[in-house]
Amino acid sequence: MSISAANRPRPGRRRIHARSYGAPSSVLSLLLLFISMLASTLAYEMEVDALVYESSYFQELAVRGEIHIDMTEPPLIRDIHIQRRQDSVVPTSVSEATSTWDSSAASTSSTTSSSSSAAATSLAIATDTSTTVSPTAVSTSISPSVTVVTTPLPSPFDTSIGSNFTVSSCPTFFSTFLSNSTFQSCVPVSLLLQNSNSFFRAERSTTLLTQTLDSACNAPLAICSPLMANLASELIADANCGADYKLQNPLVSQAYAGLLAYEPLYRATCLQDSTSGAYCFAEAVTNTTNDADAYPYYTALGLNMPAGASPTCSQCLKDTMSIFAGYAQATNQPLASTYLGCAAQVDVACGSGFAATDIKVGSVKKSAATRKGYGSISASGGAAALLALLFVFDDTFDHVLGY
Questions:
Q1: Tens digits of residue pLDDT in 334-364
Q2: Which of 12, 333, 393, 398 shows a CA-CA span of 20 to 30 A to 20?
Q3: Rounded to whole angstroms, how far apart are CA atoms 147 and 210?
Q4: What's the pTM?
Q5: Which long-range contacts (CB under 8 A, 24 or more apart) does 194-201 make?
Q6: Do 187 and 216 form a contact (C-beta atoms < 8 A)?
Q7: pLDDT tens-digit series, residues 7-30
């Protein structure tokens, strides 16, 4: 029996009923939790310049759909070399400290000259190194230690002896005795007064001047005095500077006077004020109220005191004039030609008898005449006695002194 297609029974449709599952809901919850954790991890704070991004000008450009292009030149990119700071390095000399100061100044100048186009970015270059330079010490804040640079003592003829000499043996003689350590240890103030630029600078500082006088007054007079007398004799010898001395070469004449006047100026400049304990010479040259206080010391070198000069009438002046009065009696001392004039001026200012004027200048031949209380060292002492003293001298002095 055939059944037509129209009468064929339709197959029954399956109806799928939705069931509720718990798994998809749990997965969705875990996914949302993971996203929130990831978002909190990647979140960061962004600062936006409101003046740039929220200004009315840029809002207008956004409405019109236009793009603003900055056509100005881009800022220059400077090469910045970064070096690790050496905290353990401390300047050991004035030149090193000066180099540090110069490099710091250069970096500061470079920072200040930055273009105005980089005004939105502030670059601060700071250094914690501060260096102070002084005539005698260098201090730095890098290390708690302080490096002290000792200032050398003043020396005579420290600028240049020049070339104005008749014979080449004369400047050679100067170089020989000036470089000798024994001569240098004597610190001859008599040669420093007229021919030392470093001593002139030291006179501006009481501290430096006192240090110089301390060294000069600690020098052994028994060695230095005959040494200077011998150098004076050798200086004007024909084999050395005799020709220039006869022509009155100023450098040679001043050196000769300074060598002869070593002992009287040694005693005078080493006098100390009984009240203050300071050196009388230091008080005289640093007295800004009366420049004449220093003039009597220069008379020991053969220089006359300026007319009308009136030094301060102190005990220091009285004692100094007493020393000079004794040495003025020697024929070979420059004081023989200058003392009486100086004493007369001092007496006018300080009263009659303040300085001795009844002495016979130049009356003692070739000897260092002395006042009561001072020893005497003959400038023409025997060769044996002088040779005994020369054992402590350097070998470089052998040919200078002729032994």
A1: 999 999 999 999 999 999 999 999 999 988 8
A2: 12
A3: 22
A4: 0.58
A5: 194/254, 194/258, 194/298, 194/301, 195/156, 195/157, 195/251, 195/254, 195/255, 195/258, 196/154, 196/155, 196/156, 196/157, 196/158, 197/158, 197/159, 198/152, 198/154, 198/155, 198/158, 199/154, 199/156, 201/154
A6: yes
A7: 555 554 545 444 444 555 666 777
- Kindly report the three-state secondary structure assignment for every residue of 164-212: CCCCCHHHHHHHHHHCCHHHHHHCCHHHHHHHCHHHHHHCCCHHHHHHH
HEC states along 245-302? HHCCCHHHHHHHHHHHCHHHHHHHHCCECCCCCCEHHHHHHCCCCCHHHHHHHHHHHC
Cβ atoms of 331 and 364 closer than 8 Å: yes
Q: Where on the phi/psi map is residue 137: left (φ > 0), alpha (ψ -120 to 50), or beta?
A: beta
Tokens linked to 110: 């470079």
pLDDT tens-digit map of 189-210: 999 999 999 999 999 999 999 9
Q: Which residues have a Cβ under 8 Å from the Cβ of 52 and sit 6 or more positions away?
A: 58
